[in-house]
Amino acid sequence: MSELKKILVSQPRPLTERNPYSEMEERYGVRFDFHQLIHLEGLNAHEFRQQRINPLDYTAVILNSKMAADQYFRMCEELRLQVPDSMHYYCISEAIANYLQKYIQFRKRKVFFCENNHFEDLLPTMNRRPNEKYLLVASDVHNDDLVTRMAEHKIIIQPAVFYRTVATEWPQDKAFDYQMIVLFTPSGVQSIRKNFPDWKQGDTLIACFGQSTCNTAEEAGLRVDIKAPAENCPSITIAIEKYLDNNL
């Protein structure tokens, strides 16, 4: 695959200059372009009310991203709801827990976070609070795996949509001429179809991270050439590097 020169990564450019992508550029002579195919928009108060969910009916909030935290507090403000000091926060990571200091006085609230980015880590804490009522801050594109897993432990979680995933319009002055496209979400697949309804994959390679992304790509009629996580490829960058190593 000697013609493989331009690769689109549908994520923001890494903040650090030295990263797996820059190392592959130097090693294989390829170029990575970074462009987000989707972005997030918060629901307005009217849209949120249609779910008939009152955030103050819950004693705890589950947050899996900083965006979720932003949207939760934004919506409460739009709804003119005063979040009580007694509210508990269950976060997927310590970074998100620390981020809450933007909105709350950290020492006065009870904030819990996962050590290994798995909400099951918080089961002992949750089990000590059998009367807790959990609200999951979610986007319109989410799966209910966490809700299902926690239900197996008799922990009921109510998901609520606070924001939606929207396809980002591709710049008209930017060519879409990549030999490989790296996708991370089902919404990224849908964005390509929306931006380029007549686009044919041809020889273009598709790399997908996550089974749901792979499934969506294949359902959309795309051929998935590189998948991660897979055996010996826990990350998409390792999977791409292995492909380049074998084909360039």
What would you note in describing this structure?
With 248 residues, the chain is an alpha/beta fold. α1 (20-28) packs parallel to α9 (236-247) and α7 (186-195) runs parallel beside α8 (211-219). The protein has nine helices and eleven strands. Helix content is 31%, strand content 22%. α7 links the parallel β9 (180-183) and β10 (205-209).
Task: Give me the secondary-structure topology.
Blueprint: E1 6-9, H1 20-28, E2 31-34, E3 38-42, H2 45-49, E4 60-63, H3 66-78, E5 88-91, H4 94-99, E6 110-113, H5 123-127, E7 134-139, H6 145-151, E8 157-167, E9 180-183, H7 186-195, E10 205-209, H8 211-219, E11 226-228, H9 236-247
Parallel strand pairs: 1-2, 1-9, 4-5, 4-7, 5-6, 7-8, 9-10, 10-11
Antiparallel strand pairs: 3-8
Helix pairs in contact: 1-9, 7-8
